[in-house]
């Protein structure tokens, strides 16, 4: 399982966010260029319809592939009390012909995206990953070179951390406290609960750009 | 990784496979000075689609199987033999398959037995049994030549080894023989340099032959 929060930021403030993250994480950023294919089971396949994502990391000398399954979010009073989404997530690295396998099994391409940006991975209480990316759609199937932004001028910020049924409370707390540092620039909340851009972002960004970065945690 | 052949026991017409043959084969390995190194195990699952309408069954592969092999237990391999597809994945892919609820295991088989070292060769001899049963459905033998990973380069030495092996086994007058199936790995997108994916394909083909043999006897 994993803990996850999401937010949006105007592209003009992304550079300031990067400076802040650099200071907070104390690690080098990694480039992010991922082709994401969302597959859905055909009409007759499965007890219920199912969805699986194939991620192709294009920022490698030889692109690498991962199958990812994201399950339902934890519900109930306990889940309502924490400010991050806790959901099941299973990943598996796969060889490059995985798409052909899933097509052969009766899965169909539902949609595909190209995410371009950067990411930071660091370890504090939890192993936290932050990605900032523009999400692009393709006018034709697999035409990643012709991809155009879904939301021009806007980028997505994802913060995720792997968790277990035993430690998700601590991981959620670690993610929440980390998000507070980013609050002047981006508001992070449970996915699908959009809270929009932060009104103070422009002022915070201007301040960050002038002093060259935040202080380390 | 080293080149490997996977042989299977082909009983003579009218005879069946039994654990007695497995005993004879392991004794034979020991008689040619194979040094027992311990146990080994592999598992194989045949998957079938979970369909809402059984009428469209023909649209889905009937020979979709997954296997975990001794070469790399952290990996899992999917094979659709008829479509010449082999896919390598982390073993967590099995959990993803469970969560998708689109395919389920209809038959699970174990391969289990002993591993031997014999000079530059590693041998594994084992039985094929369904889970929750002790009924021997087949016997397999892995022959690995440790110094070479090119299949073409290892061919001669493998063939020579098999001659010695067949000769040693012939003294026991068993009702059948171990056979190696020649495969065109290129059809599966695999090159000459041996990988665990080659082993996965070999097992899929061995199983297809075993099933065909059983069906021929029954038929």
From TrEMBL, chain A:
It comes from the Eukaryota. Its main location: nucleus. InterPro entries: Mediator_Med18. Keywords: Nucleus, Transcription, Transcription regulation. It is found in: Nucleus. Gene3D superfamilies: Hypothetical Protein Pfu-838710-001. Signal peptide: none annotated. GO terms for cellular component: nucleus. Belongs to the Mediator complex subunit 18 family. This is Mediator of RNA polymerase II transcription subunit 18. It comes from Cardamine amara subsp. amara.
From TrEMBL, chain B:
The keyword Nucleus applies. Belongs to the Mediator complex subunit 20 family. Pfam families: Med20. One of its GO terms (cellular component) is nucleus. It comes from the Eukaryota. It is found in: Nucleus. It comes from Cardamine amara subsp. amara. This is Mediator of RNA polymerase II transcription subunit 20. Keywords: Activator, Nucleus, Transcription, Transcription regulation. Component of the Mediator complex, a coactivator involved in the regulated transcription of nearly all RNA polymerase II-dependent genes. Mediator functions as a bridge to convey information from gene-specific regulatory proteins to the basal RNA polymerase II transcription machinery. Mediator is recruited to promoters by direct interactions with regulatory proteins and serves as a scaffold for the assembly of a functional preinitiation complex with RNA polymerase II and the general transcription factors. Component of the Mediator complex.
């Amino acid at each position: 399982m994993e803990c996850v929060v999401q937010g949006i930021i105007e592209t003009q403030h992304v550079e300031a966010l990067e400076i802040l993250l650099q200071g907070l994480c104390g690690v080098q950023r990694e480039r992010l260029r991922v082709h994401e294919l969302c597959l859905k089971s055909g009409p007759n396949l499965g007890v219920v319809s199912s969805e699986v994502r194939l991620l192709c990391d294009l920022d490698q000398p030889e692109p690498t592939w991962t199958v990812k399954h994201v399950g339902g979010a934890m519900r109930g009073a306990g889940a309502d009390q924490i400010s991050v989404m806790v959901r099941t997530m299973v990943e598996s690295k796969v060889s490059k012909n995985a798409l052909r396998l899933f097509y052969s099994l009766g899965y169909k391409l539902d949609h595909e995206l190209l995410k371009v940006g950067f990411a930071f991975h660091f370890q504090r209480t939890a192993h936290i990953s932050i990605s900032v990316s523009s999400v692009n759609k393709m006018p034709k199937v697999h035409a990643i070179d012709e991809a155009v932004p879904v939301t021009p001028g806007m980028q997505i910020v994802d913060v995720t951390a792997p968790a277990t049924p035993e430690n998700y409370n601590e991981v959620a707390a670690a993610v929440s406290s980390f998000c507070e540092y980013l609050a002047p620039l981006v508001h992070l909340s449970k996915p699908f609960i959009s809270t929009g851009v932060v009104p103070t972002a422009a002022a915070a960004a201007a301040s960050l750009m002038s002093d060259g970065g935040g202080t380390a945690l | 990784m080293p080149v490997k052949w996977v042989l299977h026991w082909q009983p003579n017409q009218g005879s069946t496979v039994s654990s007695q043959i497995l005993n004879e084969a392991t004794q034979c390995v020991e008689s040619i000075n194979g040094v027992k190194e311990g146990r080994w195990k592999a598992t194989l699952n045949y998957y079938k689609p979970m369909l809402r309408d059984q009428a469209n069954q023909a649209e889905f592969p009937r020979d979709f199987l997954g296997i975990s092999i001794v070469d790399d237990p952290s990996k899992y391999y999917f094979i659709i033999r008829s479509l010449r597809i082999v896919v390598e994945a982390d073993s967590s892919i099995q959990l993803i398959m469970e969560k998708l609820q689109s395919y389920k295991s209809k038959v699970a088989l174990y391969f289990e037995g002993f591993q031997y070292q014999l000079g530059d060769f590693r041998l594994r001899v084992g039985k094929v049994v369904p889970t929750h049963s002790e009924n021997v459905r087949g016997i397999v033998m892995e022959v690995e030549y440790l110094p070479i990973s090119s299949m073409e380069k290892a061919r001669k030495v493998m063939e020579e080894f098999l001659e010695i092996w067949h000769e040693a086994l012939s003294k026991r007058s068993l009702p059948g023989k171990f056979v190696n199936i020649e495969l065109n790995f290129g059809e599966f997108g695999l090159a000459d340099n041996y990988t665990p994916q080659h082993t996965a394909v070999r097992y899929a083909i061995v199983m297809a032959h075993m099933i065909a043999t059983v069906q021929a006897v029954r038929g």
